Each structure stands twice: as C-alpha cells, then as structure tokens.
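User: Hi! I'm working on a homework problem where we have to compare a predicted structure to a textbook description. Could you give me the structure for the chain below?
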Amino acid sequence: MGPVDLAVCSFGQTNIVTPIEMITAYAAAINGGYLMKPYVVSKIVDTDGNVIKTTEPEIRRQVVSEETSAIMRKALEDVVNNKGGSNAYIKGYRIGGKSGTSQKIGGSISSGDEDDMQYVASYACFAPADDPEIIMLIMADEPTRPLPTTAVQLSYPMQERFWKRFCRIWDIILNIPKRSRQS
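Assistant: Happy to help. Predicted structure tokens:
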C-alpha cells in the first residue's frame, strides 16, 4: 500500500470487507449497538415440517451505546426523508439508509487514471427506522460506466421494488391500517 492508498484508507477507500461484514457492522449501528453473529437460515425443517435445526440470534458484544444507536437511526432516517436520500423515500414508511461508493484496492487509486479505477457502489437500508426489523444491503461490484451520481441512484429501482412489496406484506402481517403509518 502506497502513501496515497494509506491516506484515502482513512475515509473508507480501499477497504476490503465482505457484504456480510458490512451489513453486520451496519446492523450494530442501528440495533441498539449490538454486534451480532451473522446467520442466514433461522431454521431447517424436514419434509414433514419437523424442525431439524434452529439458529438463535447471538450477541457477540456491544460496540456502540443504545443512545448512539438511536442517534444513528434518526440520522439515517433523515438521510432518506431529506434531500440527500430522496430517491429512497417511500411515502408512508419509515426507512433509514445510506449509500456509498468506494474505489477497490485492486484498482490503481494512486495512478489517478480514472479508466483504471474499479468501484463498488452500495446502499444499505432498514425499516422501520424507529425499531428496525429488516435490513438490506444492495451492492454493485464494478458497475458499468458511466457511474450514476450516487450509489442510491444505482440501487433505487431494486430497493424501491423490494420495500414496496415488503411493506405491503408487513402491513398485512401486522394488520397496520394506513392511518397509523408515517405520512
């Protein structure tokens, strides 16, 4: 790693993390500050419906305070509700989110050659913003050029379809009348 790569590393460029590491860290920032052991499957059932294996949430440790986590939830909801994240806003639902674009360490950041640089664009979002139940990470590894202005513009069509479908199902599951949702 050269001096330029070292300098830009301080604000997230050139970092190498997996999507599961990224979403695990993001979840810790919004779930009350708890770093959880990631898992994908909550239970395995056989063809007769018998539960063969169950995975329970496991807290590794608290990495930020409950107070800091509440501040982060509010700030990330404000990103979606205000001008910066307006592409992610869906009327009637409290969603928090943040986009990011980073140059990959494999690309030549220090050369300054724009054509040689490789990018990862990401958008992480969660709902409901005041008491998160679901989190989503959308990543585009080396998206085609020209890059959209922001990662949220790149991810918007996918995340909008997901949230609209999810929120309809969520309303049915929780039996939430329209009038009780945020307007």
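For your comparison, note the following. Strands lie at 34-36, 43-45, 51-54, 59-62, 96-103, 119-127, 134-141. The CA atoms of residues 119 and 143 lie 7 Å apart. Good luck with the assignment!
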